[in-house]
Specification:
Elements lengths: L2 H21 L6 H18 L2 E6 L9 E5 L6 H8 L5 E3 L8 H7 L3 E3 L4 H16 L3 E4 L20 H6 L2 E10 L17 H11 L2 E7 L9 H23 L4 H12 E3 L1
Parallel strand pairs: 1-7, 2-5, 2-6, 3-4
Antiparallel strand pairs: 1-8, 6-7
């Protein structure tokens, strides 16, 4: 597809998302909102030249869970929402992004000024209250994006929400793969790259496959640092497993295997 046309279609889809939220969400049930969000996110991935494969989905928690995973790109959020729509914790700057920030706000995102300790405390209490009420929340404890080849340290502060709520933690892992079955860093939104440049990199790097591995739930503890360490260990193990698949010598046979036997292609 023509690159300019692909960008235009992606932009129109974002505007359609605003229209959907403004006109259909007010009358929609909670379940219908989830359906609309998931369908919209899946279409966004397709317009970006991306497929989604979910692994180990039987471990998924659908109530009172803090979902945590590695963070590579702005598109991570739509990958996760295409799997299971989930409110996020996000840096405050995202609230001011055109279109994307408005959509995030409407979908229940909690925005946090990470550098302000008092705001992080407020965020933790809001998360704990929503988790106790049965919601599923998602955060990226690395606190920033990476190239996805490894993991950064996990910040433990917001894990206190799971401790306070007494809820389980669900580790997930994301990995992007190019058309040749190799791990791709094209979606990585890092360094001094602008959002527009990152969108261009995703479109030029396609077709891509987003792999999402759902880890086994981690029971709540009374120590947020212990919980953060256990979650990071789980994501590290999932990343290693996905990377070993993407570097196998028989890539094509492997790709057929993960789609037919271990992964659900969406």
């Amino acid at each position: 597809m023509n690159f300019t046309l692909a960008k235009a279609r992606l932009g129109l889809h974002l505007l359609h998302g605003m229209w959907t939220v403004a006109t259909r969400f007010p009358q929609a049930s909670a379940e219908r909102k989830l359906e609309l969000t998931r369908a919209w996110s899946l279409k966004l991935l397709r317009l970006a030249g991306m497929k989604l494969v979910v692994h180990h989905d039987e471990a998924r928690l659908d109530r009172s869970a803090l979902v945590v995973g590695n963070h590579i790109s702005w598109i991570d959020i739509y990958v996760i929402n295409a799997w299971r729509p989930t409110p996020f914790v996000s840096k405050a700057e995202v609230r001011h992004w055109p279109v994307v920030g408005w959509l995030a706000h409407q979908l229940g995102t909690i925005f946090v000024h990470r550098e302000k300790r008092r705001d992080a405390h407020r965020t933790m209490h809001e998360m704990a209250a929503r988790l106790q009420a049965g919601e599923v929340m998602c955060m990226f404890p690395e606190g920033t994006t990476s190239d996805g080849l490894g993991l950064l340290p996990f910040h433990s502060n917001l894990f206190q929400a799971a401790v306070s709520a007494g809820c389980r933690v669900q580790p997930i892992c994301l990995l992007y793969e190019d058309a040749h079955g190799r791990q791709s860093t094209a979606p990585a939104y890092i360094g001094d790259m602008s959002l527009a440049e990152s969108v261009d990199a995703v479109l030029r790097g396609g077709p891509l496959t987003a792999h999402l591995y759902v880890g086994e739930a981690i029971e709540a503890t009374t120590d947020r640092r212990q919980l953060a360490a256990a979650a990071r260990d789980a994501v590290t193990a999932s990343l290693a497993a996905l990377q070993s698949r993407s570097t196998t010598s028989d890539r094509e046979a492997h790709r057929r295997d993960i789609r037919s036997n271990e992964g659900i292609e969406l």
